[in-house]
Design goal:
There is one protein chain. The chain is of the alpha/beta class and about 100 residues long. It contains 2 helices and 3 strands.
Length: about 100
């Protein structure tokens, strides 16, 4: 007897990564969901190269404040690192004020 339940979407969950760092969180989210990272956003070039090494097909959107989101591949899940530089004891300790990296 045929099932009345429609088949599940065969496409893996698409993941978008903001403030990506080297991709530790993304690896965990992929593992937990079975998804694939579609794109990432990282300004720090040396760190972005590490991410790109592990996800060579995921484009780096770089500065999220300049992205035209209409041109970006839609995703099912967002994950994001914490912009800690302005709250770190080694940083400027500017906190979450507007205009700071941690204020994004």
């Amino acid at each position: 007897m045929p099932s009345s339940t429609p088949p599940l979407d065969p496409r893996p969950i698409r993941i978008g990564s903001l403030f990506s760092g080297y991709g530790g969180l993304d690896l965990a989210v992929e593992h937990a969901t079975g998804g694939e990272t579609a794109w990432f956003s990282e300004l720090n070039e040396p760190v972005a190269r590490v991410f790109a090494h592990h996800w060579p097909d995921a484009p780096n959107l770089s500065d999220i404040t300049t992205v035209n989101w209409h041109d970006v591949t839609p995703v099912d899940v967002f994950c994001g690192g914490f912009r800690y530089q302005d709250v770190s004891t080694v940083g400027k300790q500017a906190d979450h004020a507007p205009g700071t990296r941690s204020g994004l």
